[in-house]
Amino acid sequence: MNNEVKYCVGLNCRSSNIETILTKRAKDVYEVFAAAPQDISPTGRRGNVPVNLEELKRQVELVHRYGVRYNVLMNGSCFGGLEFNADFKDKISNFVKYLDEIGVDSTTVMNPFLVDLVRKNSQQIEIIVSSFAGVTEPVKIERLRSRGADRIVLHQNVYRNFEMLKTIRKSTDLALEIIPNQGCVNQCECFMSHINIVAHSSVATDEEIESFGDFNFPVKRCRTIRQTDPLEFLMSSLIRPEDLSLYEEMGFNILKFAGRRSSTEWMLNDLDAYISRSYVGNVFDLSSHVGENPKICNLPNKVLNGWYQYMGSNSDPVRFRTRAIEFCEKKHIEQYFPK
After folding, report:
1. Over the stretch 217-275, which tens digit does the pLDDT of each residue have?
2. 314: CB partners within 8 A, 6+ apart
3. pTM for this structure?
4. Within 10 Å of residue 299's Cβ, how many Cβ atoms?
């Protein structure tokens, strides 16, 4: 197994975004990822700038000149049944063949029927299964592998379960990926409804999106919870740069960075922190869910040194919460949270 750390960075597709990332960090970046065109497939975020097939081809050719891979996202969690529609399947099949023609390296999907469809139409493209698929144990990995998956992005609910992570890593030689900088709350009860509404929003027109209301409310709620409840934050899935070594030692060396709706500057600053394995500043600067949004908590990252080591695994939920309470008291974490 190749133990070199591989960094995967999102594209916001704004002016000069991809050029800036490649010029400044191509030597560090293994792969960039961007949403499929809006009229092709739902994805996991509503994009900033729609990308057409011509621009997609230009971007693929550009990253390859720098020795970087290109990953196209079709990772929406809900297709409204279209995945069984003959016309839609033809559209996806033709799109996959186009991706093959222009040299796209990989595609990320959540829907297992899209795994089947992509593999049927391409033997070259690497199929990455999204974290939205909720993979947290070996049995699902092997099922997805049998359908053609090449890489799995593990779900955040397993990031703090070190025993299960070790079991997963030992059970397969399939490439496994984690997202260190998202920081979802532990066992979020809103997860499915959140990713489903976002999938629908990703393909909605500007007129249609007005009927969605505040479709980003779930992530805003999560952002508030983690900045007002120190225990929820301490039990969350945010992995600090200083704690990446725990995952490298277990054999997880592919890191996907969430935040493709953020500015290029934020993306590069976040990447730099993880590459250097250190960050001085507010820990919420690192989280894609908070990032550039207004912050109501200023928790110095270095105060959290020893956080993961002290709390250990969440395989025992009662002990995990108890250790969070103890760590909170030991480090006086409450003083940094709003009263």
Report:
1. 888 999 999 999 999 999 999 999 999 999 999 999 999 999 998 999 999 999 999 99
2. 160, 161, 186, 235, 320
3. 0.95
4. 21
Q: Taking a C-beta distance cutoff of 8 angstroms, is the pair 171, 14 a contact?
A: no
- Rounded to whole angstroms, the Cα distance separating 331 from 116 reads 49
Single-letter amino acid, residue 245: S
Domains and CATH numbers, the chain: 6-216+237-281 (3.20.20.70)
SS3 breakdown of the chain: % helix, strand, coil, rounded to 5?
Answer: 50, 10, 40
CA–CA separation, 158 vs 135, rounded Å?
8
Query: Do residues 52 and 72 touch, judged by C-beta distance below 8 A?
Result: no
- The CA distance from 92 to 83, in Å, is 9
- What single letter denotes the amino acid at residue 259? G
Instruction: Give ∠ CA 117-120-121 in degrees, rounded to 5.
Output: 90
Which residues lie across from 127 on neighbouring strands? Answer: 107
3-state secondary structure of 179: coil
Query: How far lies 187's CA from each of 60, 221, 222, in Å?
Result: 36, 14, 12
What is the tally of helices (H) and strands (E) in the chain? Answer: 14, 8
The Cα–Cα gap between 328 and 208 comes to 45
How high is the pLDDT of residue 1? 44
d(CA 307, CA 290): 20
